[in-house]
Design a protein that fits this description.
Layout (H helix, E strand, L loop, with lengths): L1 H20 L2 E5 L5 E3 L5 E3 L4 H13 L3 E6 L21 H14 L10 E2 H7 L6 E4 L13 H13 L3 E4 L13 H11 L14 E2 L4 H9 L12 H8 L2 E2 L10 E4 L2 E4 L5 H12 L1
Parallel strand pairs: 1-4, 1-6, 4-5, 6-7, 7-11, 8-9
Antiparallel strand pairs: 2-3, 10-11
Helix pairs in contact: 2-3, 2-9
Length: 282
């Protein structure tokens, strides 16, 4: 009986330690389903499927808790063009596993989405979260880049050195921490060039984002319809004061880690970003 009690106590302590080790990751997405372009044009957008679901599945499989948020708390929109099994090694079964997980989470359901607003995140307290992850798709270019709530969240994580992971267009959200993010975006859109911001909290950080070369390919292949983006994320991060690092070849895997910041260049970099994030949580 004594041995059984000891075993049960040991099992209970082990289970408790596993719970204690589990991290709580905040996944921030855009509310937007449309990206405003130059000359009053627009294009449908949303989050990129593999950039959201591959890291989310890896986090959940590792027993971490995940909370989803958008600036306004609206259900995020899936970029339908991102539903491509090529990002999953052309493995139909693996692709379908991730689709089934997205459906079970009900993220895109207007009625049942578990997504909360960034205001609610602020009320809960940033200390409740151990890391933040921002996937791409062009939607972050619409609202996350200029969201004061996003800026406050990221500034808190930067100050505390908490893991901050982003991929593809996701790193553009770093611009939200500029003292005048809206003014910066407007100036860049109007003139194509702005002076660097030495007071930016990420000035001097090494980072990456979808490259201008890759954006050019996307434009030529009709990803923006007949429009042009108001500004490119690589240019914006560089001019804000970031030290941009690119893959040797377009669409190559490229993950850049500097202090608490983990950034990936494109969809092919997603798994690398997720693995770096998991290292910080384990």
């Amino acid at each position: 009986m004594k041995i059984l009690t000891t075993l049960m106590l040991g099992a209970g302590l082990w289970a408790a330690s596993q719970i204690a080790l589990a991290g709580h990751v905040l996944v921030v997405l855009s509310d937007a389903g449309t990206l405003d372009l130059k000359e009053g044009k627009s294009v449908q957008t949303g989050f990129y499927f593999n950039e959201l679901m591959q890291p989310v599945k890896m986090l959940l499989d590792a027993k971490h808790k995940v909370t989803f948020a958008t600036p306004l708390g609206n259900a995020p929109v899936l970029d339908q063009g991102s539903l491509n099994k090529s990002y999953f090694g052309n493995d139909e079964a693996v692709f379908n596993q991730h689709k089934a997980l997205l459906e079970s989470l009900k993220l895109t359901s207007a009625a049942d989405s578990p997504v909360i607003s960034l205001s609610r995140v602020e009320q809960i307290g940033y200390q409740a979260f151990d890391a933040v992850y921002v996937p791409g798709g062009r939607a972050p270019m619409q609202d996350l880049t200029v969201s004061p709530l996003m800026g406050r969240l990221l500034a808190d994580f930067q100050q505390r050195g908490k893991p901050t992971a982003m991929v593809c267009h996701g790193p553009a959200a770093l611009l939200s921490t500029l003292p005048n993010a809206t003014g910066f975006a407007r100036e860049l859109e109007m003139s194509g060039q702005v002076s660097s911001r030495p007071d930016w909290i990420y000035a001097g950080y090494r980072m990456t984002v979808m490259s201008n070369t890759e954006e050019g390919w996307a434009k030529r292949n009709g990803r923006l319809g007949d429009g042009d983006m108001k500004y490119l994320p690589q240019t914006a991060l560089e001019q804000a004061g970031g030290k941009y690092q690119s893959a040797l070849l377009p669409w190559g895997n490229n993950v850049v880690v500097d202090r608490e910041l983990i950034t990936g260049q494109n969809p092919e970099s997603t798994l690398g970003v997720a693995n770096e994030l998991l290292k910080r949580l384990n």
